[in-house]
Design goal:
single chain; 144 residues; alpha/beta; Rossmann fold; 6 helices; binds 1,3,4-trihydroxy-5-OXO-cyclohexanecarboxylic acid
């Protein structure tokens, strides 16, 4: 069974009530359930986490060096700012999928650059919670 680490960055714990016109009404625990259910259909064991802290995100990415087969990450605002997240992702030799609920390229200019895209095998954005499902499908294709 492939072990997949799904990482979520700052403010994603507020999904459901956070700017629902942009991010939808599903909560992060709804999305976790979707990932676990859909992951099972691909034979994935999903380890789903969220943090508001950049250092914790870096620590968790480093954890993926051992015993994980893929990482799916929505680094949220750290996507656009964090060289530390970028450098940590570069430590990995397993596939990385970048996901976003919204499409940052259709939004403010400061969301157009991603430190994650530079190291991601695929970027899936703009499908709401479905971005996570499509991200798992992309990982399944890569790992097949
Ligand atoms: C986001 C997009 C980011 O620009 C933003 O900072 C987020 C969420 C998304 O999933 O659409 O917090 O990553």
């Amino acid at each position: 069974m492939a072990r997949i680490l799904v990482l979520n960055g700052p403010n994603l714990n507020k999904l459901g009530t956070r700017e629902p016109n942009i991010y939808g009404t599903q909560t992060l625990s709804d999305i976790e359930k979707l990932c676990i259910d859909h992951g099972t259909s691909h034979g994935f064991e999903i380890d789903f986490r969220q943090t508001n802290s950049e250092g914790t995100l870096v620590d968790w990415i480093q954890e993926a060096c051992d015993g994980y087969h893929g990482v799916m990450i929505n680094a949220a605002a750290y996507t656009h700012t964090s060289l530390a997240v970028h450098d940590a992702l570069k430590l990995l030799s397993i596939p990385i999928i970048e996901v976003h609920l919204s499409n940052p390229h259709e939004r403010e200019d400061f969301r157009h650059h991603s430190y994650v895209s530079l190291v991601a095998a695929k970027v899936i954005a703009g499908h709401g919670a479905r971005s996570y499902i499509l991200g798992l499908d992309a990982l399944a294709e890569i790992l097949a």
